[in-house]
Design brief:
The structure holds 2 protein chains of 2 kinds. By secondary structure, chain A is mainly alpha-helical. Chain A is about 80% helix and about 0% strand. Chain B is mainly alpha-helical. The longest helix of chain B has about 35 residues. The chains are: A mainly alpha, B mainly alpha. At the A-B interface, strand 1, helix 1, helix 2 and helix 3 of A face helix 1, helix 2, helix 3, helix 5 and strand 1 of B.
């Protein structure tokens, strides 16, 4: 016996909420990407642990899919970030935005 | 084992709070690696050994190193956060979400009897499932990886070639 499903769910929701709070608070693009990482990781953790609870292997295969999608997403987002940096010399989203200019 | 789960869970939450507070992105990334390591420790406790190893290899070994490489290319003064009133807003959001979590607790209190046991999974089963039932998924994932490699190559190729063209025009 390890733990009840409820505790795993609360841990995952806690990590997701912390990532979302950091997504709201941060102004810099790199920190936004890091908080996205936290959120995807918490969701993947929930999927694998619930798959373990039902004795199904599908959760682990979904985890492999999620980790690949995250890697591609991060690589593309970082390349866009480098391009933004070369063009504007700035990464603050409140100075980069083009609405109400 | 039961105690170890709560230990790792506490550490993952603790390091994630440190990520939210830190101003220096490199420290923040190091704390993110620690948080991922504790989550993978939980995977090892559940018996999903391959998944735990994969998390360490891909997240902490590949993605975080990519982040650190990109951070080295950027001027460090631009990355750091300057506003200081973030802490009060953080506690405000945190309080709201803790109250919401309390409501969740009331709803889920009857679920306390459902228990996760150790379930050791061999890589052989995963491989059979990946190349039998989920073959289409593997193909689509390979296409996704190929498209991402092509896109990132195209981005930088076009960018640098335009830059060189401008320089030649000026000369």
């Amino acid at each position: 016996m390890i733990s009840s499903v409820y505790h795993v769910l609360v841990l995952s929701v806690f990590l997701f909420i912390l990532g979302m709070i950091s997504l709201f608070l941060r102004r810099n693009l790199i920190f936004l990407l890091i908080s996205l990482e936290i959120m995807t990781n918490s969701v993947a953790f929930l999927i694998v642990s619930l798959g373990n609870y039902w004795n199904q292997l599908d959760g682990q295969i979904m985890y492999i899919l999620i980790i690949t999608v995250t890697a591609t997403e991060i690589s593309l987002a970082l390349s866009v970030l480098l391009k933004i940096y070369k063009l504007y010399k700035n990464l603050d989203i409140y100075q980069l935005h083009e609405i109400n200019k | 084992m039961n105690l170890l789960f709560y230990f790792f869970g506490f550490f993952s939450i603790f390091f994630t709070i440190l990520i939210v507070f830190n101003k220096n992105p490199i420290y923040s990334l190091l704390y993110l690696i620690l948080s991922l390591l504790s989550v993978s420790g939980i995977f090892f406790i559940f018996g999903a050994l391959f998944i735990g190893a994969l998390e360490i290899i891909i997240y902490a070994g590949a993605i975080m190193v990519l982040f650190i490489f990109i951070l080295m290319l950027i001027n460090p003064e631009i990355i750091q956060e300057k506003k200081k009133n973030n802490r009060i807003r953080f506690f405000f959001y945190f309080l709201i979400f803790v109250i919401l979590l309390g409501f969740l607790h009331i709803f889920f209190i009857s679920e306390n009897k459902k228990i996760i046991f150790i379930w050791n999974v061999s890589i052989k089963k995963l491989g059979i499932l990946l190349f039998g039932k989920y073959l289409l998924l593997v193909e689509l994932t390979s296409l996704l990886l190929l498209s991402s490699v092509l896109l990132s190559c195209f981005f930088f190729y076009s960018f640098f070639s335009f830059k060189n063209l401008n320089k030649k025009d000026k000369n």
